[in-house]
Amino acid sequence: MGLYDGNTILDLSEEKYLQHRQLTHMKPTLKEWIKDRIKKGCRKKLLYKRIPILSWLPQYNCGFAVSDLVAGLTVGLTVIPQAIAYSSVAGLPPQVGKMQENFLC
């Protein structure tokens, strides 16, 4: 007979149904579209591209953590007087510079 063999489309196996959709060039259902997007979007290469921490975190060690901590403290301690100086140059109270420093870092 035909594709349905006297049955409704609900009686088709998933494989036959998908073949039928491809042959008739029907748009995918929302469920099929989401499934396809998840398959395409969750590839390892794409995840590493979108979330860079996944590539360098496995090689991160304690030496890097100490260096990062020192760098953070250095920048933090440098920005405080710099922000206060900029506020005084602008003719504002030092508290405004300190408040701006919190937003800029």
From TrEMBL:
Subcellular location, record wording: Membrane
Superkingdom per UniProt: Eukaryota
Lipid bilayer topology: Multi-pass membrane protein
Domain SLC26A/SulP transporter: 67-97
Keywords assigned by UniProt, alphabetized: Membrane, Transmembrane, Transmembrane helix
UniProt key word Transmembrane: yes
Gene Ontology BP term (one): transmembrane transport
A cellular-component GO term for this protein: membrane
Protein name, UniProt field: SLC26A/SulP transporter domain-containing protein
Naturally occurring in which organism (per UniProt): Rhamnusium bicolor
